[in-house]
Amino acid sequence: MVVGCEDAMKQLRALIHEVEEPLRTTFQHVHQGHVNETLVRFLKARDWDPFKAHKMLVDCLNWRVQNEIDNILSKPIVPADLYRAVRDSQLVGLSGYSSEGLPVFAIGVGLSTFDKASVHYYVQSHIQINEYRDRVILPSASKPDRPVTTCIKVLDMTGLKLSALNHIKMLTIISSIDDLNYPEKTKTYYIVNAPYIFSACWKVVKPLLQERTRRKVQVLPGCGRDELLNIMDYSSLPHFCKREGSGSSRHSESGSENCYSLDHPFHQKLYNYIKQQARLREPVEPIKQGSFHVDFPEPPDEEVEIANSIGSELHKFENGNGV
User: Fold this and answer.
1) Residue 68: half-sphere exposure toward Cβ, Cα within 13 Å
2) I need a surface site. Which of 164, 260, 270, 311 has the fewest CB within 10 A?
C-alpha cells in the first residue's frame, strides 16, 4: 500500500472510530472482524478519498439501521412456493469455490424474468444472499492468516433479448444497492454465453465504467469453460459452463446440479438458515407472510447513465427490427 493510501486508511480509521450506537453495532455486521479490509473497500469505491469514503460508509450504516438489515436473515420469504417462484425468476446461486478459495456466484442475467413476485421480494432475496455471503459464506471460507472478503461472479447472458428493457429498473435498483452498500465485494465478473445484443450494449456501456470496474470485467468466448478451468475445478463450474455450446436453461440440469434452483444445496442451506434464525427471534410466533420492505437508494449518476445508455441501445434494436 503506497504512502497516500496508508494516510487515507489512518484518516478513515480515525473518522469511523467516532461513530456511535447503533451505527457501531451494524458496522460489526459489515466488517465481520476484518476492519482494515472493509475500510479499503470503501476507500477504493471513493478513489481513496477518506472523507468521501467516510460519508459513503456512514450512509451505508444509516441505511442498514433504518431498514433493519441486521435482521433480514431472520425474515424468510414464505410460503416456500413463493420463494421457489422467486428463485425460478431471479437466477442466482453459489456453484463452488475458485482455486484461491473465493466463492463463485452464478447469475442468469439473460433468463431472469423478475415476474413472479413484487419488486420488494426480489430486493429482499438479493440482500439476504448478500448478507448470507458476508456473514456465513465468506467467514467459513476464511483462514486466520488468509481472510476471504470478496467473491467471483459468472454472468450468463444466454437468452438476453429485447425484453431485457423491462428489467432495467429492477437491475438498476439491485446494482445501486450493491454499489452503495456492498462496494468492491466482487473481484472479477466473467461474462459468458454473450449474444450479439450484449456485445452491442457492452460497446456503449464500457466507456462509461470507471477504470477499476472495467478491469474487473472479462468477456469470455462461448460458455467460458476452458478459461474458467484455469481458476477453478470442474466441480465448481456453474452448470451452464460445463457443456460447450449448450447455453443455459433453468431446467437444463437436475435441481441439485442447477445452482439457481431452490433444490440446490446452497439454496437449501440458505433457506433453512433463515427459517432457523426466524425461530430463534420469534420462537412462539408463526412466521408471517409478506415482503420485508427496504428503501431503494437513489442510483448514482453513473448507474443512471448506464441504464439510459442500455435502454437507448435496446430501443435501436427494437426499431431496427420493426418490433
Assistant:
1) 8
2) 311
Residue 233 and residue 99 in contact, taking contact as beta carbons nearer than 8 Å? yes
Cell of 163: 425484453
Q: pLDDT tens digits for the chain (323 residues)?
A: 555 799 999 999 999 999 999 999 999 999 999 999 999 999 999 999 999 999 999 999 999 999 999 999 999 999 999 999 999 999 999 999 999 999 999 999 999 999 999 999 999 999 999 999 999 999 999 988 899 999 999 999 998 877 666 788 888 899 999 999 999 999 999 999 998 888 888 888 888 888 888 999 999 999 999 999 999 999 999 999 986 554 444 444 555 689 999 999 999 999 999 999 999 987 756 666 666 888 877 777 887 787 787 778 777 766 665 44
Distances (CA, A) of 19 to 14, 16, 23, 61: 10, 6, 6, 10
- Burial class for 20, CB neighbours closer than 10 Å (0-12, 13-18, 19+): exposed
CA distance 212 to 140: 28
| Residues 24/64, Cβ–Cβ less than 8 Å | no
Looking at the chain, the number of H-run helices and the number of E-run strands are 13, 5
> Do 192 and 240 contact (CB within 8 A), yes or no?
yes
Cβ-in-10-Å burial (0-12, 13-18, 19+) of 66 comes to: exposed
Q: Which residues are bridge partners to 108 per DSSP?
A: 156
Sequence-ordered strand ranges (E) for 197-246: 217-219
Strand pairing category for 186-192 and 217-219: parallel
Domains within the chain, CATH numbers bracketed:
3-66 (1.10.8), 72-277 (3.40.525.10)
Question: Which helix (H) or strand (E) covers residue 175, if one does?
Answer: helix 168-181
- Separation of alpha carbons 218 and 102, rounded Å: 17
pTM of this prediction?
0.90
Residue owning grid cell 470507471: 210
Strands (E), 16-141: 92-97, 103-108
In 196-265, the DSSP E strands lie at: 217-219
